[in-house]
């Protein structure tokens, strides 16, 4: 079963093509009882001493996924807080450093995210954490801007509401997946992937049109902006559902522990998407 998240869809460890746990990993036909031949001179001082078997690669566990995802989200949070605290006062018009860091985070996160998404081998911790840091810069910057523009004095900040909503969304999707034993069908998966490509195409088209002053309002605060944000939130939530399914498939297949960083990237990307579009929805409703 494939996911609409490219990092899981492209990676053989999660798309069912790796053969882990099914005789395809670390089971080569070596002589001498199944172990690789020793290097020249191995054990020379001790003739007849038994050879030591190579240490097997430990299979990924759910704890590995939770820990690596927690580290990734922690980096997002630290970078976001640092951006919020370390930049000027938006209400006073001191936005130069804020805009700069937000732009760096947006474009840096896009570039590193694309590299991670289309990389077919396991992701390194450095690459995943770099993505998390860039996303933290962007999330912290855009959150501070939205908070200054749309939060109402005496009411909970829309940033706090978005964070709380993201936590409930992630927990709710996981609970629904486990307790209701949701099965992801191939037809549903294909439909989500097709719709995701359409959503991405609309976003790119809107970006190009906006540069020439002919945007359709998908990034605005009107009705079209609200519809587009709701669609983005829906894709993020469904993406989480499919990603949980892909992680479970990886655990069942016995993929190596190092693939936990790949899982952490996919889940972090989906949760960031949920938070961003939920923040957009709250901002648009508050503006109305």
* Approximate strand percentage: under 5%
Number of strands: 0
Mean pLDDT score = 81
Weakly predicted, low-confidence segments: 21-51
Contiguous helical run count: 9
Structural class: mainly alpha
What's the alpha carbon Rg, rounded to whole Å? 23 Å
- Report the biggest beta sheet as strand number plus sense, adding barrel if it closes: none
Q: Can you tell me the overall shape?
A: globular
Order of helices and strands: HHHHHHHHH
Condensed summary:
With 288 residues, the chain is mainly α. Helix content is 66%, strand content 0%.
Description:
- With 288 residues, this protein is mainly α.
- Helix content is 66%, strand content 0%.
- It has 9 helices and no strands.
- It has helices at residues 6-9, 31-34, 62-86, 96-118, 125-150, 158-179, 186-211, 223-253, 260-287.
- The protein is globular.
- The two termini are 41 Å apart.
- The model is unreliable at 21-51 (pLDDT under 50).
- Residues 29-48 are annotated as: Disordered.
- The chain crosses the membrane at residues 65-85, 97-116, 128-146, 158-180, 192-212, 224-247, 259-278.
- It holds the Pfam family BaxI_1.
- Keywords: Membrane, Transmembrane, Transmembrane helix.
């Amino acid at each position: 079963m494939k996911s609409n998240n490219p990092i899981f869809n492209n990676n053989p460890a999660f798309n069912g093509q790796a053969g882990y746990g099914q005789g395809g990993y670390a089971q080569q036909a070596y002589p001498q009882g199944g172990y690789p031949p020793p290097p020249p001179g191995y054990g020379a001082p001790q003739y007849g001493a038994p050879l030591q078997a190579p240490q097997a690669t430990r299979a990924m566990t759910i704890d590995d996924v939770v820990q690596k995802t927690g580290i990734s989200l922690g980096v997002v949070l630290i970078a976001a807080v640092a951006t919020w605290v370390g930049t000027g006062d938006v209400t006073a018009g001191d936005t130069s450093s804020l805009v700069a860091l937000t732009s760096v985070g947006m474009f840096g996160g896009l570039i590193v995210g694309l590299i991670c998404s289309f990389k077919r081998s396991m992701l390194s911790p450095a690459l995943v954490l770099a993505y998390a840091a860039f996303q933290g810069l962007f999330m912290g910057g855009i959150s501070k801007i939205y908070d200054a523009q749309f939060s109402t004095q005496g009411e909970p900040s829309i940033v706090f509401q978005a964070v709380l909503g993201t936590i409930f969304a992630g927990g709710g999707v996981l609970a629904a997946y486990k307790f209701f034993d949701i099965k992801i069908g191939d037809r549903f998966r294909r439909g989500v992937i097709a719709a995701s490509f359409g959503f991405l195409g609309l976003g790119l088209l809107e970006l190009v049109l906006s540069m020439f002053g002919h945007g359709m309002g998908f990034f605005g605060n009107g009705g079209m902006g609200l519809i587009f944000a709701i669609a983005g939130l829906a894709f993020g939530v469904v993406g989480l559902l499919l990603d949980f399914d892909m992680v479970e498939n990886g655990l069942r297949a016995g993929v190596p522990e190092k693939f936990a960083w790949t899982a952490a990237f996919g889940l972090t990307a989906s949760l960031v998407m949920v938070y961003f579009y939920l923040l957009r929805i709250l901002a648009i409703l508050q503006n109305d």
